[in-house]
């Protein structure tokens, strides 16, 4: 059992280089701040309805996180054409948003847990999903 656990931990640390994880978390924090800032500015100062403001903030955060991912976090690129990379990135991000919604619905509406507790759990799960899926599906060169 100990040997199995040691192998698992070695795989995790090989797959999740600490520098990439730290950079990913910094990027995510900055993207989230931008998301909130754009949403608040559009809603409070420009009078945009909240749903539209939130979508605009989300789109800005995706652009920022994608820029960080390509320039600072990941060294490899799976696709030769940038459009495929962007579509893959958007796909993973949209699945993450759906996962967040599903966890929130399940935790709050079906189980009855306070929404803040569920949101903290969802952020953790979706952060792990987003990093791993983007690393494997978008930013790891296919072996020939």
Q: Average pLDDT, to the nearest integer? A: 90
Helix-strand category: mainly alpha
* Beta-strand proportion: under 5%
Number of beta strands: 0
Give the SSE order as H and E letters: HHHHH
Roughly what percent helix? over 70%
Q: Round the Cα radius of gyration to an integer and report it.
A: 17 Å
**Through-space gap between termini:** 35 Å
Q: Tally the helices: what do you get?
A: 5
Oligomer: single chain
Given the C-alpha coordinates, what overall shape results?
globular
For the largest beta-sheet, the strand count, sense and barrel status come to: none
Extract low-pLDDT stretches: none
- When the domains are counted, the total is 2
Give the structure's gist in a few sentences:
The protein is mainly α. It is built from five helices and no strands.
Can you characterise this structure?
By secondary structure, the chain is mostly helical. It has two domains: 1-73, no CATH class; 76-144. The protein contains five helices and no strands. Helix 4 (82-111) runs antiparallel to helix 5. The longest helix has 30 residues, at 82-111. The radius of gyration is 17 Å and the shape is globular. The two termini are 35 Å apart. 16% of the residues are buried. The model has no long low-confidence stretch (mean pLDDT 90).
